[in-house]
């Protein structure tokens, strides 16, 4: 079986760990540069505020009762790392899907044991990190994500839901679920399916896989199999617009050489930026991580990671590569042999939607168009001549990374002067 | 001064901290990049790889923080826990993964605020005790209180003007 873990309202939850006064109140987290909501607490969702809304569009009534905070990517990145580390210590291999979602290999556990194990894991993460999570367990990733949705929305499940592929309750739930609420099924695909009278997840499960493959391609065919409980989807298959994009690779041979790591991070960042552009998004932050070989307990171990906000939401390889290089310089430690490096593009949003939201000056618009042109040429060359035909050179050292933030919280985990304060009582 | 409240429990119970200091060994200059010390003989031509033969310099962080992913640094505010040896401005090391036990110094959420108390007994009942007589003990039966973490160490700097 496969487990899927989703951190509930992750960004808000990160703040609530250190600011208990935020519990039970509507809380919104703003992107660091353009003032749009990137996360909402349940209380804010209940007020009918949609995700991505610019803060200035909040009604005065909602605004008055809501606490708005700036993104704190260093905090989010470190809390995410702690969630993963806690899970790794208590369960099998963990596959990081995004900053707040993980898949867990739970093979070898009986169905009866799964429920207890998942509940324990959830409690352990909640206790060690303070982050509440929901866990879904099923024979495939698609069904595991369905299970997590149930665990999150229906309180009787207490945050854990185990779905068996052919259980009547599973079928009943799939029958109530719209097909576009499934992992990787886009709205446009949903419209096309609708014309074939496939509306619910159960309809899709019953569809003829060959037929689906002919009309929609192999990815949706896999979804059909996954809904039947067959584990066939690999993470890279999912063609949906993603909120985070991860590019990482394990080196053929572990290396402690900074130049090797620079080169790896540069190429991952560039590949990530390309994927961001392909799905017509922009990224608001990036995370860079390194890892020493986990099975070599005889070598000193180090798994550093760092999340940096980008100076503006962007799809520009130059900016993204620059930030990734800077993050690498900050986490690299001499004397360790790293086996893996990776870069994650975080908080992706639609490029087009963003342009409407932002109050742009003429100058930035001009710059963006220039950048779009350059990136377009770069992507075309790389498509034509193979990835890596055109790459970016070194980093400008004088880049300015200052954020324009107004509602900043203390840097609880990253500054000795801003540690959480405990009242002696 | 470096206190380990859990082990100093007996002493702090009567509001008095023992002044016993044991010399454990010399601390390393910097433990950020622990260097392996080669132990044993080095025979020419035979590099030694076995882990058993590598000694590492003592790492204070590793020693004080057995579960780094569940541990947080916090700052003590106020003087009400001086009876437990915690002073205003001390650096607290808080482990969230531990089950709080009688006598532990813990951080709890009280009225939306992270507050430091000692878990103990009052009239035979489990209660949150303060190091300050001005604060009344809070009996735990019926009170909704959530443990945030267990204070496993506090670091008190004696040189306030910087190092």
Q: Could you give the topology of this structure?
A:
The complex is a heterodimer of chains A (425) and B (163).
Chain A: E1 2-7, H1 10-18, E2 27-30, E3 37-40, H2 42-46, H3 60-65, E4 67-70, H4 73-90, E5 94-98, E6 101-105, H5 111-129, E7 133-138, H6 141-153, E8 160-162, H7 168-176, H8 187-195, H9 201-206, H10 209-216, H11 218-227, E9 245-255, H12 258-278, E10 281-291, E11 305-314, H13 317-331, E12 338-346, E13 349-350, H14 351-357, H15 362-385, E14 421-424
Parallel strand pairs in A: 2-4, 7-8
Antiparallel strand pairs in A: 1-6, 1-7, 2-3, 5-6, 9-12, 10-11, 10-12, 10-13
Helix pairs in contact in A: 4-5, 10-11, 12-13
Chain B: E1 2-3, H1 9-13, E2 36-38, E3 54-56, H2 60-64, E4 71-77, E5 91-95, E6 105-110, E7 113-122, E8 125-129, E9 138-139, E10 146-155
Antiparallel strand pairs in B: 1-10, 2-3, 4-5, 5-10, 6-7, 6-10, 7-8, 8-9
Alpha plus pi helix count of chain B = 2
In CATH terms, what is the fold-level topology of the largest domain in chain A? DNA polymerase, domain 1
**CA(first)-CA(last) distance of chain A:** 47 Å
Output the number of helix runs of chain A. 15
User: Which two protein chains have the largest interface (Cβ within 8 Å of the partner's Cβ), and how many residues from each?
Assistant: A-B, 29 and 40 residues
The CATH architecture classification of the largest domain in chain A is Orthogonal Bundle
Average pLDDT number of chain A: 85
Q: Specify the CATH class of chain B.
A: Mainly Beta
Structural class designation of chain B: mainly beta
Determine the structural class of chain A based on helices, strands and strand pairing.
Answer: alpha+beta
Total count of strands of chain B: 10
**What is the CATH homologous superfamily assignment of the largest domain in chain A?**
5' to 3' exonuclease, C-terminal subdomain
Summarize the helix and strand pattern of chain B as letters: EHEEHEEEEEEE
Q: Helix coverage percent of residues of chain A?
A: 40-55%
Give the count of structural domains of chain B.
1
Largest sheet: spatial strand order of chain A:
5-6-1-7-8
Computed Rg of chain A: 22 Å
